[in-house]
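Morning, I've got a small favour to ask if you have a moment. It would help a lot if you went through both lines with me. Thanks so much in advance, here it is.

***
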Amino acid sequence: KWLFATIDTLRVNADPLIPSSLGVQSAQKHLMEDLTEHCAAQLKHLAGQNQSKQTLANNPIQALVDNFTDQAVRIVNSTIPPISRKRKQVKWDFESETLTYKNTRIKISQNHYSKLRGLFTKHVQVNSNKNDIFLKSLFRMVLRYDTLGGPGFQASLPSAVFQVLKDTLGVDCEVFASPLNCNYSYFCSLFPDTDVPFGSIGSFFDYYPDSGSFEANPPFVHAVIVRMAKHINSLLKRSQKTGKKQKSTKGERSTLCTHSLFCR
Protein backbone atom coordinates (compact mmCIF):
# COMPACT_ATOMS: atom_id res chain seq x y z
CA LYS A 1 0.00 0.00 0.00
CA TRP A 2 2.72 2.48 0.96
CA LEU A 3 4.74 1.44 -2.07
CA PHE A 4 1.86 2.44 -4.35
CA ALA A 5 1.64 5.79 -2.59
CA THR A 6 5.31 6.58 -3.19
CA ILE A 7 6.65 4.68 -6.18
CA ASP A 8 5.34 7.01 -8.88
CA THR A 9 6.93 10.03 -7.21
CA LEU A 10 10.42 8.54 -7.33
CA ARG A 11 12.86 9.09 -10.15
CA VAL A 12 15.71 6.72 -9.38
CA ASN A 13 17.66 4.51 -11.77
CA ALA A 14 17.10 1.34 -9.79
CA ASP A 15 14.64 -1.47 -9.38
CA PRO A 16 11.57 0.22 -7.83
CA LEU A 17 11.01 -2.72 -5.47
CA ILE A 18 14.49 -2.41 -3.95
CA PRO A 19 14.40 0.27 -1.21
CA SER A 20 16.25 3.52 -1.83
CA SER A 21 16.77 6.16 0.86
CA LEU A 22 14.27 8.47 -0.85
CA GLY A 23 11.69 5.71 -1.21
CA VAL A 24 12.05 4.64 2.43
CA GLN A 25 11.57 8.22 3.68
CA SER A 26 8.45 8.63 1.57
CA ALA A 27 7.01 5.28 2.64
CA GLN A 28 7.71 6.09 6.29
CA LYS A 29 5.67 9.28 5.94
CA HIS A 30 2.59 7.43 4.64
CA LEU A 31 2.97 4.60 7.18
CA MET A 32 3.25 7.13 10.00
CA GLU A 33 0.10 8.93 8.85
CA ASP A 34 -1.92 5.71 8.65
CA LEU A 35 -0.82 4.40 12.06
CA THR A 36 -1.32 7.77 13.74
CA GLU A 37 -4.83 8.07 12.31
CA HIS A 38 -5.68 4.52 13.40
CA CYS A 39 -4.30 4.99 16.92
CA ALA A 40 -6.08 8.33 17.31
CA ALA A 41 -9.40 6.65 16.56
CA GLN A 42 -8.66 3.77 18.96
CA LEU A 43 -7.60 6.01 21.82
CA LYS A 44 -10.63 8.22 21.36
CA HIS A 45 -12.86 5.17 21.46
CA LEU A 46 -11.21 3.58 24.50
CA ALA A 47 -10.63 6.68 26.60
CA GLY A 48 -13.61 8.67 25.45
CA GLN A 49 -11.37 11.67 24.97
CA ASN A 50 -10.40 13.77 21.99
CA GLN A 51 -6.82 13.07 21.10
CA SER A 52 -5.38 14.99 18.19
CA LYS A 53 -2.88 13.68 15.69
CA GLN A 54 -0.45 16.36 16.86
CA THR A 55 -0.58 14.97 20.43
CA LEU A 56 0.18 11.49 19.13
CA ALA A 57 3.13 12.70 17.08
CA ASN A 58 5.51 12.23 20.03
CA ASN A 59 4.35 8.75 21.03
CA PRO A 60 6.14 5.45 20.28
CA ILE A 61 4.59 5.19 16.80
CA GLN A 62 7.60 6.90 15.23
CA ALA A 63 9.99 4.42 16.85
CA LEU A 64 7.79 1.56 15.64
CA VAL A 65 7.83 2.89 12.06
CA ASP A 66 11.61 3.43 12.12
CA ASN A 67 12.22 -0.07 13.46
CA PHE A 68 9.83 -1.67 10.96
CA THR A 69 11.32 0.05 7.90
CA ASP A 70 14.92 -0.60 9.04
CA GLN A 71 14.19 -4.32 9.35
CA ALA A 72 12.31 -4.42 6.04
CA VAL A 73 15.17 -2.75 4.17
CA ARG A 74 17.73 -5.08 5.78
CA ILE A 75 15.73 -8.18 4.80
CA VAL A 76 15.20 -7.06 1.21
CA ASN A 77 18.81 -6.04 0.67
CA SER A 78 20.06 -9.34 2.09
CA THR A 79 18.08 -11.28 -0.53
CA ILE A 80 19.40 -9.40 -3.60
CA PRO A 81 21.52 -11.93 -5.54
CA PRO A 82 24.91 -10.96 -6.98
CA ILE A 83 24.97 -9.98 -10.64
CA SER A 84 26.15 -12.83 -12.86
CA ARG A 85 27.90 -12.20 -16.16
CA LYS A 86 27.05 -15.67 -17.43
CA ARG A 87 24.20 -15.60 -19.90
CA LYS A 88 21.37 -17.97 -19.11
CA GLN A 89 18.21 -18.69 -21.01
CA VAL A 90 14.69 -18.34 -19.72
CA LYS A 91 12.73 -21.53 -20.31
CA TRP A 92 8.98 -22.05 -20.59
CA ASP A 93 7.40 -25.39 -19.80
CA PHE A 94 3.91 -25.62 -21.31
CA GLU A 95 2.68 -28.57 -19.26
CA SER A 96 3.68 -27.24 -15.83
CA GLU A 97 2.95 -23.62 -16.84
CA THR A 98 6.32 -22.54 -15.45
CA LEU A 99 8.93 -19.97 -16.42
CA THR A 100 12.44 -20.86 -15.23
CA TYR A 101 15.62 -18.78 -15.03
CA LYS A 102 18.51 -20.41 -13.16
CA ASN A 103 16.94 -21.58 -9.89
CA THR A 104 13.95 -19.24 -10.00
CA ARG A 105 10.61 -20.65 -11.12
CA ILE A 106 7.42 -18.64 -11.70
CA LYS A 107 3.98 -20.00 -12.45
CA ILE A 108 2.01 -18.38 -15.27
CA SER A 109 -1.14 -19.76 -16.83
CA GLN A 110 -1.30 -20.78 -20.46
CA ASN A 111 -3.99 -18.15 -21.06
CA HIS A 112 -1.75 -15.41 -19.70
CA TYR A 113 1.19 -16.75 -21.67
CA SER A 114 -0.79 -16.66 -24.95
CA LYS A 115 -2.18 -13.20 -24.23
CA LEU A 116 1.24 -11.75 -23.38
CA ARG A 117 2.87 -13.30 -26.44
CA GLY A 118 0.21 -11.62 -28.56
CA LEU A 119 0.83 -8.23 -26.91
CA PHE A 120 4.59 -8.62 -27.31
CA THR A 121 4.24 -9.50 -30.99
CA LYS A 122 2.07 -6.42 -31.53
CA HIS A 123 4.40 -3.96 -29.80
CA VAL A 124 7.93 -5.28 -30.38
CA GLN A 125 9.49 -5.60 -33.82
CA VAL A 126 12.65 -7.75 -33.83
CA ASN A 127 14.18 -9.77 -36.65
CA SER A 128 16.19 -12.33 -34.67
CA ASN A 129 16.05 -14.17 -31.36
CA LYS A 130 12.47 -13.03 -30.95
CA ASN A 131 11.46 -15.97 -28.75
CA ASP A 132 14.48 -15.50 -26.49
CA ILE A 133 13.75 -11.76 -26.14
CA PHE A 134 10.09 -12.47 -25.46
CA LEU A 135 10.83 -15.01 -22.72
CA LYS A 136 13.32 -12.70 -21.00
CA SER A 137 10.88 -9.79 -21.16
CA LEU A 138 8.09 -12.02 -19.90
CA PHE A 139 10.19 -13.34 -17.01
CA ARG A 140 11.25 -9.85 -15.88
CA MET A 141 7.69 -8.55 -15.97
CA VAL A 142 6.04 -11.52 -14.23
CA LEU A 143 8.79 -11.65 -11.58
CA ARG A 144 8.24 -7.94 -10.83
CA TYR A 145 4.53 -8.39 -10.15
CA ASP A 146 5.05 -11.71 -8.40
CA THR A 147 7.53 -9.99 -6.05
CA LEU A 148 5.08 -7.15 -5.42
CA GLY A 149 2.39 -9.67 -4.49
CA GLY A 150 -0.63 -8.62 -2.46
CA PRO A 151 -4.26 -9.72 -2.76
CA GLY A 152 -6.35 -8.01 -5.40
CA PHE A 153 -3.47 -6.23 -7.14
CA GLN A 154 -4.38 -7.86 -10.46
CA ALA A 155 -8.14 -7.57 -10.01
CA SER A 156 -10.06 -6.03 -12.88
CA LEU A 157 -13.56 -5.43 -14.17
CA PRO A 158 -15.16 -8.21 -16.25
CA SER A 159 -14.17 -8.25 -19.93
CA ALA A 160 -17.79 -7.64 -20.92
CA VAL A 161 -17.70 -4.27 -19.14
CA PHE A 162 -14.65 -3.18 -21.12
CA GLN A 163 -16.38 -4.20 -24.34
CA VAL A 164 -19.39 -2.04 -23.45
CA LEU A 165 -17.10 0.88 -22.61
CA LYS A 166 -15.38 0.48 -25.96
CA ASP A 167 -18.61 0.12 -27.97
CA THR A 168 -20.55 2.92 -26.30
CA LEU A 169 -17.89 5.44 -25.22
CA GLY A 170 -14.97 4.63 -27.49
CA VAL A 171 -12.70 3.69 -24.57
CA ASP A 172 -9.47 2.13 -25.81
CA CYS A 173 -6.99 2.72 -22.99
CA GLU A 174 -6.81 1.85 -19.28
CA VAL A 175 -4.87 4.32 -17.14
CA PHE A 176 -4.29 1.90 -14.24
CA ALA A 177 -3.48 -1.59 -15.47
CA SER A 178 -0.70 -4.12 -15.96
CA PRO A 179 0.19 -6.52 -18.78
CA LEU A 180 -1.41 -9.28 -16.71
CA ASN A 181 -4.84 -7.70 -16.29
CA CYS A 182 -5.13 -5.24 -19.19
CA ASN A 183 -8.12 -5.52 -21.52
CA TYR A 184 -6.89 -3.15 -24.23
CA SER A 185 -3.61 -3.28 -26.13
CA TYR A 186 -2.54 0.13 -24.76
CA PHE A 187 -2.54 1.03 -21.07
CA CYS A 188 -0.73 2.96 -18.36
CA SER A 189 1.07 0.94 -15.70
CA LEU A 190 3.23 1.24 -12.62
CA PHE A 191 6.41 -0.26 -14.10
CA PRO A 192 7.28 1.04 -17.60
CA ASP A 193 10.73 -0.59 -17.44
CA THR A 194 9.18 -4.08 -17.54
CA ASP A 195 5.77 -3.36 -19.10
CA VAL A 196 6.51 -1.37 -22.29
CA PRO A 197 7.15 -4.49 -24.44
CA PHE A 198 3.56 -5.52 -23.68
CA GLY A 199 1.85 -2.23 -24.52
CA SER A 200 2.38 0.04 -21.52
CA ILE A 201 2.69 3.74 -22.34
CA GLY A 202 4.16 4.52 -18.92
CA SER A 203 2.77 5.98 -15.73
CA PHE A 204 -0.60 7.72 -15.91
CA PHE A 205 0.92 10.61 -13.99
CA ASP A 206 3.41 11.16 -16.82
CA TYR A 207 0.69 10.88 -19.49
CA TYR A 208 -0.79 14.05 -21.00
CA PRO A 209 -3.26 13.19 -23.78
CA ASP A 210 -5.17 16.04 -25.44
CA SER A 211 -8.20 13.91 -26.21
CA GLY A 212 -9.55 10.38 -25.97
CA SER A 213 -11.74 8.12 -23.87
CA PHE A 214 -10.18 6.27 -20.94
CA GLU A 215 -11.04 3.86 -18.12
CA ALA A 216 -9.62 4.56 -14.63
CA ASN A 217 -9.70 1.94 -11.89
CA PRO A 218 -6.83 2.86 -9.53
CA PRO A 219 -5.44 0.93 -6.55
CA PHE A 220 -7.62 1.62 -3.52
CA VAL A 221 -4.99 3.78 -1.83
CA HIS A 222 -6.02 7.23 -0.64
CA ALA A 223 -2.93 9.08 -1.86
CA VAL A 224 -3.16 7.49 -5.31
CA ILE A 225 -6.89 8.27 -5.70
CA VAL A 226 -6.39 11.92 -4.70
CA ARG A 227 -3.47 12.28 -7.10
CA MET A 228 -5.48 10.61 -9.88
CA ALA A 229 -8.42 12.98 -9.41
CA LYS A 230 -6.15 16.02 -9.50
CA HIS A 231 -4.36 14.76 -12.60
CA ILE A 232 -7.64 14.04 -14.42
CA ASN A 233 -8.96 17.51 -13.62
CA SER A 234 -5.66 18.99 -14.78
CA LEU A 235 -5.88 17.09 -18.09
CA LEU A 236 -9.46 18.23 -18.68
CA LYS A 237 -8.56 21.85 -17.97
CA ARG A 238 -5.55 21.57 -20.24
CA SER A 239 -7.64 20.03 -23.01
CA GLN A 240 -10.46 22.55 -22.87
CA LYS A 241 -8.20 25.47 -21.99
CA THR A 242 -10.40 26.68 -19.17
CA GLY A 243 -8.88 29.14 -16.74
CA LYS A 244 -11.15 28.23 -13.80
CA LYS A 245 -9.53 26.91 -10.65
CA GLN A 246 -11.12 24.22 -8.55
CA LYS A 247 -10.82 24.42 -4.77
CA SER A 248 -10.10 21.19 -2.94
CA THR A 249 -9.22 20.04 0.55
CA LYS A 250 -6.52 17.49 1.27
CA GLY A 251 -8.04 14.04 1.60
CA GLU A 252 -11.33 14.86 -0.10
CA ARG A 253 -10.96 12.27 -2.82
CA SER A 254 -14.73 11.91 -3.27
CA THR A 255 -15.18 15.66 -3.62
CA LEU A 256 -12.39 15.87 -6.17
CA CYS A 257 -14.21 13.35 -8.35
CA THR A 258 -17.91 14.07 -7.80
CA HIS A 259 -17.67 17.87 -7.61
CA SER A 260 -15.33 18.31 -10.55
CA LEU A 261 -16.14 21.15 -12.92
CA PHE A 262 -16.25 18.54 -15.68
CA CYS A 263 -18.84 16.16 -14.21
CA ARG A 264 -21.89 15.65 -16.45
